[in-house]
TrEMBL record:
This is Glycosyltransferase RgtA/B/C/D-like domain-containing protein. The keyword Membrane applies. Keywords: Membrane, Transmembrane, Transmembrane helix. The chain crosses the membrane at residues 21-44, 83-105. It comes from Actinomadura bangladeshensis.
Length: 157
């Protein structure tokens, strides 16, 4: 007998389909969001560029306080510098937003007792909005800002 409170929370065979059964609308929206992101990653190899992107890469190459651009995103890129892959940056940005949608849905359902249908509809814009997906694919600080702000709100909730 284990004294861990997580002992009875181990993964059981068939647990995933049972969890999806009660959350079918969210599963459909989540899968659609993931498919859209995969199509975007395959359709636009690497990253999409914006005027600010060059400044962020300059900050990542040699960290310095930029007078116009937030330094946090440049430091985020600097941390990924050893991997030499801008595709990894977009993959992480896409994954972070999908993860936020999952955590947001879970929190709405479990902590705030929102009905599953309404919770699924609440996270639909972040998963299916084409502008959001484009922002995730751009080399811009917007996605990191969204993740940090939404994460802070989740911690405070």
């Amino acid at each position: 007998m284990l004294l861990s409170p997580l002992a009875d929370r181990r993964f059981k065979a068939g647990a995933l389909p049972a969890a999806a059964r009660g959350n079918w609308l969210f599963v459909v929206v989540l899968l659609a969001g993931v498919v859209l992101r995969v199509v975007t990653m395959l359709g636009f190899r690497g990253v999409l560029w914006f005027n600010d992107s060059y400044d962020f890469l300059r900050i990542a190459d040699d960290p310095f306080p930029h007078p116009l651009r937030p330094s946090g995103y440049g430091l985020f890129l600097w941390g990924l510098k050893p991997f030499h892959s801008l595709a990894l940056v977009t993959l992480l940005q896409h994954a972070a937003i999908v993860g936020l949608a999952v955590v947001g849905y879970r929190m709405l359902v479990r902590d705030f007792e929102v009905r599953r249908t309404w919770a699924a509809l609440a996270v639909t814009p972040i998963l299916l909005d084409s502008y959001q997906i484009e922002l995730e694919h751009l080399l811009l600080s917007d996605t990191l800002f969204t993740v940090l702000i939404f994460g802070a709100l989740l911690v405070l909730a």
